[in-house]
Amino acid sequence: MSSVADKLAKKSTRQTSAKQVRLRLVYIDFWSAVKLSFLAAVALAIVTVVSSFLIYMVVQTTGLIAQIDQFFQSFSENGISISEIVGLPQVMAFSAVVAILNLIVVTVLGAVVAGIYNLAVKVTGGLLVGFTSN
């Protein structure tokens, strides 16, 4: 009597023919490109804000800002305090502004690239992409 494992082993030894299909990408939907680039920009914005927070915390923990404060205060009599200029609220506000600008730029850039590709397809014929069934 053959077991289930023997039947599965026989099935796995059969070779299946891999069918290849070659398709040509001749159009990118404008709104799909805008939505996809917006989602990529949101991910980039989150990474920007989180990484700037982590970098600030590492610099603050190592005492680098305090050393820079002492360095600048040794040159000036009034005592310019870098820690007042480069505090956590200022760093987070700056990273939020950069993230919002990146959000706008990446979204518009995705739309522009989709439009340029759709125009270039008329000259080049599109991008040839191959797919297999495996």
Structure description:
With 134 residues, the protein is mainly α. It is 72% helix and 9% strand. The protein is built from five helices and two strands; from the N terminus they run αβααααβ. Strands 1-2 form a two-stranded antiparallel ribbon. Helix 2 packs antiparallel against helix 5. It is elongated, with a radius of gyration of 28 Å. The two termini are 32 Å apart. The relative contact order is 0.21. The mean pLDDT is 87.
In whole angstroms, the N-to-C terminal distance is 32 Å
What value does the average pLDDT take?
87
Radius of gyration: 28 Å
**Topology as a string of helices (H) and strands (E):** HEHHHHE
Specify the biggest β-sheet.
Answer: 2 strands, antiparallel
Enumerate how many helices there are, as a single number: 5
- The main sheet orders its strands as 1-2
Question: Segments where pLDDT lies below 50 for 5+ residues?
Answer: none
- The count of DSSP E runs of length 2 or more, i.e. the number of strands, is 2
Class derived from helix and strand content: mainly alpha
Instruction: Give the proportion of residues in helices.
Output: over 70%
* Beta content: 5-15%
Shape field: elongated
